[in-house]
Write a structure and sequence with these properties.
The chain is α+β, with helices and mostly antiparallel strands and about 300 residues long. Helix content is about 40%, strand content about 15%. The protein folds into 2 domains: about 10-170, Regulatory protein AraC (Jelly Rolls, Sandwich); about 180-295, Homeodomain-like (Arc Repressor Mutant, subunit A, Orthogonal Bundle). It is globular, with a radius of gyration of 21 Å. This is Helix-turn-helix domain-containing protein.
Length: about 300
């Protein structure tokens, strides 16, 4: 049982669908598409087996996918697809954290899988043999979902785990050393909290956390401790992460919305549009107005 997604859906449509049975959905897809998908955070986890050419944008990073690959997406990090080639094929499965309630005897903790590794590249490139192996697992998921077996979702869960294991086998995630685990844990919590504020979906929805102090308070740690941990793990200061993420969101809003500069400034936590103008120009070398006109092709 395989279903193709038509041009009105594609990767956009499947991300807007409600999960069947409330917790899981799997489907094969093949299509022609030219429009980028919305840059939003979804409410589910997703594993995509992809063959084609596309640029994946997630958080503030872009990855060119020009050969077969597995792509992992989680609810914490917003992402979008920018098509480069007209033809693509593959499979995807979407599921909730509740669906992946792995029993304690499992050798692989779901939290240790690539899906939870914020700050790492969520793409695992495959050769032809590896692609065929993973494709077989997706076909088995589709076949099992269509069956009448009462425990079919337990079987599907095992297939999802096998896909994760294949990714770890091909591209292992380096273990965190015990000496740095506390700093890594704090840093990951900070990065997750930072990403949860985005994307900004309406001018009335403003940033709640603006400074390193705000994040430290939310994480119940001293701001100096947070700053030290983040710099030690990532090599960049907490304020740099915040600033870069705000700039990335500002560029997206200027390019993809019809909001006024003032609306964008307020949504990003600036008390006055002039403050936003100065901030944006200092970081990018151009004013928000110039950036918006450039994105629109007016200059």
């Amino acid at each position: 049982m395989e279903a193709n997604v038509n041009s009105s859906q594609g990767l956009v449509g499947c991300d807007r669908m409600t999960l069947e049975n409330g917790n899981f959905k799997v489907q094969s897809v093949s299509n022609q598409f030219k429009a980028a998908t919305p840059y939003i955070r979804r409410d589910f986890y997703k594993i995509t087996l992809f063959s084609g050419k596309v640029r994946l944008h997630y958080a503030d990073t872009g990855v060119l996918i020009d050969r077969p690959a597995l792509i992992f997406s989680n609810p914490l990090v917003p992402y979008s697809w920018e098509p480069i080639s007209d033809h693509w094929t593959g499979y995807y499965c979407q599921f909730t954290e509740a669906f992946m309630n792995i029993h304690e005897r499992s050798q692989l903790s779901f939290q240790d899988s690539p899906l939870f590794k914020i700050g790492t590249v969520p793409v695992c490139f495959l050769n032809d043999t590896q692609y065929a192996t993973v494709e077989t697992l997706f076909k088995k998921m589709i076949e099992e979902e269509a069956s009448a077996y009462i425990h079919r979702f337990d079987v599907i869960k095992n297939y999802v785990n096998l896909v994760i294991h294949e990714a770890l086998r091909i591209q292992p995630v380096a273990p965190v050393s015990r000496q740095t685990s506390a700093a890594v844990r704090i840093t990951m919590s900070f990065l997750e909290l930072l990403e949860r504020q985005f994307p900004i979906t309406a001018p009335s929805r403003t940033l709640e956390l603006k400074t390193a102090g705000d994040y430290a308070k939310s994480l119940a740690v001293h701001v100096n401790h947070l700053n030290h941990a983040v710099r030690d793990v990532t090599g960049k200061a907490t304020t740099v992460h915040i600033r870069e993420r705000i700039i990335a969101e500002a560029k997206l809003l200027l390019r993809n919305t019809d909001w006024s500069i003032a609306d964008i400034a307020y949504a990003l936590g600036f008390d006055y549009p002039a403050y936003f103008n100065n901030f944006f120009k200092k970081q990018t070398g151009m004013t928000p107005r110039s950036a918006k006109l450039l994105a629109a092709g007016s200059i």
